[in-house]
Task: structure prediction
Amino acid sequence: MLASIAGGWGGGYGGAASGAAIGTMAFPGLGTFIGAIVGGVVGGISGSIGATKLTKVVCDKLEYNVKKRKCKGCKKTFKARLYKGEKDEWLCQRCRR
Result:
């Protein structure tokens, strides 16, 4: 969550600066304003999405909130991601189908 917020702010700031520069080249004055708004919105959304995906990849590599479980169905070991407020998984993905 924090990474998504930070990524959104960073992306928004960078997008606004880039958009303002492009808008100034296209149409000085009003183009600067519109470019900054559009760039900020697009950059903020992109930064938030990118930061969320990056955080997921890093947490998967570090196995953060991941526990090894023994499936109650097939008895094979599998990795289960634990989320706060959700029930614990005791069946592997194949047995849940």
